[in-house]
Amino acid sequence: MYQIYTIDEMATKKTKAVCAPLTEAEPLRRSLRERNLLRDDVEIVKEGGCIYFPVKNIPDELYSYKVVTKSFKLKAAKPHCYKDRLKLSKKLMGELPTSYDVVGAIILIKLPKTLFHYRKEIGKALLETHKNIRTVCLIDPVSGEFRTRNVAIIAGENQTFTTHIEYGLSFDVDVETTYFSPRLASERKRVADLVKPGEIVVDMFAGVAPFSIMIARYAKPKIVYAIDKNKEAVLLAQQNVKQNHVLDTVEIIHADANDVEKVVPKKADRIIMNLPFSAYNFFSLALSIAAQTCIVHYYDIIKEEDIEARIDALKKIAAEHSYILADLSIRKIKSYAPREFYIGIDITATKHADVA
Ligand SMILES: C[S@@+](CC[C@H](N)C(=O)[O-])C[C@H]1O[C@@H](n2cnc3c(N)ncnc32)[C@H](O)[C@@H]1O
After folding, report:
1. CATH classification of the domain holding 308
2. Is residue 262 part of a domain?
């Protein structure tokens, strides 16, 4: 019933194996796996209508199958982490970043100066350990009015354009000419889940429009006005609106948010102000387009000890517009620097009854 024989190949490990026709292979594989008989160091082979399972030993009952001794290809050791692929001094290994952003098929990584010399090896190690990544970019922090960053490609394809998938939505992004942070995904979904049917929403600093599109797809707003001053971001936002099938609900506006009163024709039930460091300077303008009651999602980067003062200042601006701010909920979304946070504040602004 069975036969033991040897097949010589260029493979690196010779071992006993059990052979089964394709139709019987899956139950056999499961049974071998459950009994911890399957070897993990070599590849299973499919050949001539049969599957060969390399095994550690052969209990009697397996002799009803064809048993062979055969050369198998050794499995390549798969490092779990890019660090496993690098040979640096212990001190430098300790300085390798443990986190980085993945935007579509691009990794964005920051490196300390001490590792700059090794950037290409680090990029190659990241490429080798992430099968869906095509490019690795070394990045500086975002800067300037458009919140973009200097990027240097350190491994892979020479491109900064990619498509990022988030909650089933696809966002075209150019990581060099536009702002996009994958870390805000759950914040965007949280905000979308708060939107009530029929709301008029204004996304004052929309970028490639991830907040606007998330809202249009996961809620039922009447309309979302998505404003951005960066032409590149606006072009991608228009593309993103089309490819996520929300052309009817999201209107992309290429404008300066300073002109928000001119470019937004309706009063807003909800305003998203994702422009950390500067949103404060636009709060007065935001209230000028706010409905009687308006929810503002205000984002800032601020030191913990300055949060209270910032809120008092926002209340003062609101008072000048006859608005009262209530239900302020402050969330630390991510840390930015020691004791400095990217915060989100949900604010309910209501116009005084006596001056409404
Ligand atoms: C931090 S990004 C946020 C982008 C987007 N909301 C997101 O979550 O990906 C801020 C955006 O505001 C835009 N921006 C900066 N100043 C602006 C202004 N005065 N008017 C309109 N957009 C502006 C930038 O171009 C950038 O796309």
Report:
1. 3.40.50.150
2. yes
Residue 24 confidence (pLDDT): 86
Q: Ligand 1 centre and the CA of 300: distance in Å? A: 12
Using most ligand atoms within 8 A of CB, pick from 179, 186, 202, 277 the residue to mutate for ligand 1: 179
Query: Is residue 207 located within the same domain as residue 88?
Result: no
Give residue ranges with CB within 6 A of ligand 1.
145-147, 179-180, 184, 205-207, 210-211, 227-230, 233, 256-258, 274-275
Closest CA to 341 of 307, 317, 310, 290: 307
Mean pLDDT by 10 residues, the chain (356 residues): 39 84 86 86 89 88 84 78 94 95 98 97 96 96 96 98 97 98 96 98 98 98 98 98 98 98 97 97 98 98 94 96 94 88 96 67
173 domain-assigned: no
Per the structure, the complete domain to which residue 144 belongs is given by 82-159
Domain count, the chain: 3
Residue spans of beta strands (DSSP E) within 241-353: 250-254, 268-274, 290-303, 323-337, 340-351
Residues 191 and 262 in one domain: yes
Q: Are residues 255 and 300 in the same domain?
A: yes
* Residue 128, in any domain of the structure: yes
Report helix angle 210-218 to 231-243, nearest 10. Answer: 20
- Note whether residue 166 is domain-resident: no
Q: Give the separation between CA 157 and CA 160, rounded to whole angstroms.
A: 9
Atom number in ligand 1 closest to CA 299: 1
Calculate how far, in angstroms, residue 176's C-alpha sits from the geometric centre of ligand 1.
14
pTM above 0.85, yes or no: no
User: Atom 25, ligand 1: which residue's CA is nearest?
Assistant: 146
* pLDDT for the residue 74: 87
> And the tokens for 351?
């116009």
CA–CA separation, 122 vs 139, rounded Å? 13
For tokens 């300085």, what's the residue? 95
**Cα 139 to ligand 1 centroid, rounded to whole Å:** 19
